[in-house]
Design a protein that fits this description.
Length: about 475
């Protein structure tokens, strides 16, 4: 382990340039080619659902048609570049969803409509508070002008004495009339109305207003799904969400403004609604899970995750929920609460579930816990790699050639309470990574059966030395 006292502005600029170059490659990734005999369907905003969909000249038009079509494993659905679809894609077993044509990636928006229309916003009797007739699916945030600004979601905190508070601001809160701050909003799920504080009509103030409604961008209904060359935005739940599966590949995609909707009220013993939203998630076991060459930006929870609590499953203690053959490679992850999150919790004695062949390589990770996710009411500890303090029995785990810059809480939180199937300590081998955080901040946790938080110091160098091959710790001055 090498340890560098100071990270210069020049070094940060070099890393930023390399990151921006990687983003440009992702954004402009070419169409994927397939053998001529591949069963292929085309979808275009100018198409017609009564067409056969078998050529660029006879494409389908809607997601309803795509989701209801009988698709054989091995078939390919191509979406026209530059077009927008609003809703959700139900990905079928063995099917690839990808792009054709030229220009921007096909865009999948969870937002049902663009709200930048002054006639859709109604002035209430309370000055500066506007009403929009929305949906009964919870809205995680509002995104203005495609990211120039975003809404701050206000949620109730209910105390034992019956009082209610704004868990975002800490002020008393009982109705939308209590909104007091620009771009703070409250969503009334009883009638779907959205109330937004703004000094001017939001529909006139902004040229674009998108609503992150509680839904996934893609769900999967079987194994061996490939999602390629999409831009998934404004989704209140997960960009790609699935349970136990195998052979899931997500590549060459862009995920922006994902999550923020209320998962549930009262869970984890909280007296306020718990919000969630990962860009790509497997909740359960997996075998063959690849996320590569993707850009993640402004994600409420994790950019990428595989996770499961076996205690949630009635089939335990004997069921195998192992997470095997996982690769996260060549991605850019910015302004996510966690760049990568993983866990395998409550593994019963003698249960075979474990994590195996897990590789995190060649990723650029910046600003964990900053941006959109700073409004998280739980203030959970952000990190670029987050495992929590749980079982996580792991074997063959490698973290190499990654850049991790700055985190609101800690750079890494990698911990395991159980050994892997090889009897060893479930910890990763580190190889040629660059870790950079502000002077005086915490490196985090990297320990087997030891949850002690490690501060930046010479001691952490020797502490990591046993499992480190050429890694570098950098210190960023606080004023940089």
């Amino acid at each position: 382990m090498t340890y560098v006292q100071n990270c210069t502005e020049e070094q940060l600029a070099q890393w930023r340039q390399k990151t921006d170059d990687r983003i440009a490659e992702i954004v402009h990734s070419p169409n994927t080619e397939f053998p001529d005999a591949t069963e292929t369907y085309y979808v275009s905003a100018d198409g017609c659902d009564s067409a056969d969909g078998r050529s660029p000249q006879t494409p389908w038009r809607t997601l309803d048609k795509v989701n209801s079509a009988h698709l054989s494993p091995g078939s390919v659905i191509r979406f026209h570049r530059g077009d927008i679809w609003r809703g959700q894609i139900q990905a079928r077993e063995g099917v690839t969803y990808t792009a054709y044509g030229s220009g921007e990636k096909p865009r999948l928006y969870g937002s049902p409509e663009d709200g930048a229309d002054p006639d859709k916003w109604y002035a209430t009797e309370k000055e500066n508070i506007w009403r929009y007739s929305g949906w009964k699916e919870d809205v995680g945030t509002l995104v203005f002008n495609h990211g120039e600004a975003h809404g701050i979601k206000c949620i109730f905190r209910r105390e034992a004495d019956g009082s209610t508070w704004n868990n975002t601001t800490g002020e008393p809160f009982s109705t939308w009339r209590d909104l007091t701050t620009d771009l703070h909003f409250w969503h009334d799920l009883t009638d779907g109305n959205i109330y937004l504080y703004s000094p001017d009509n939001p529909g006139s103030r902004f040229s674009s207003i998108e609503f992150s409604v509680k839904r996934h961008g893609f769900t999967t209904t079987g194994p061996n799904v490939k999602i390629d060359n999409f831009c998934v935005c404004y989704v209140g739940s997960h960009g790609v969400g699935t349970g136990t599966t195998q052979g899931l590949t997500v590549q060459n995609c862009v995920f922006r403004w994902i999550g923020g909707s209320i998962q549930s009220e009262g869970i984890f013993g909280r007296n306020y609604g718990t919000r969630y939203g990962n860009a790509v998630e497997i909740y359960g076991g997996c075998n063959g899970y690849t996320v590569r060459n993707c850009w993640f930006f402004q994600i409420y929870d994790a950019a990428v995750t595989q996770q499961f609590n076996i205690g949630d499953c009635e089939r335990a203690p004997g069921a195998d929920f192992s997470q095997k053959n996982i690769l996260y490679s060549g991605n850019v992850m910015e302004y996510c609460n966690y760049s990568i999150e993983y866990f395998l919790i409550a593994v019963p004695k003698d249960n075979p579930s474990h994590i195996e062949n897990f590789v995190i390589e060649d990723n650029f990770m910046w600003y964990a816990g900053r941006g959109f996710c700073t409004q998280r009411p739980d203030k959970a500890g952000s990190a670029h790699i987050k495992s929590w303090n749980t079982d996580n029995p792991t074997v063959n785990y490698l973290i190499r050639n990654n850049l991790m810059v700055d985190s609101f809480n800690m750079l890494v939180h990698i911990n395991a309470a159980k050994p892997g199937p090889d009897g060893k300590d479930s910890m990763p081998v580190l190889e040629n990574n660059h870790f950079a955080a502000r002077t005086g901040d915490s490196f985090g946790i990297l320990a087997f059966r030891d949850t002690t938080q490690q501060a930046y110091s010479p001691e952490i160098v020797s502490y990591l030395g046993e499992k480190s091959r050429g890694d570098t710790l950098w210190f960023i001055p606080q004023n940089s």
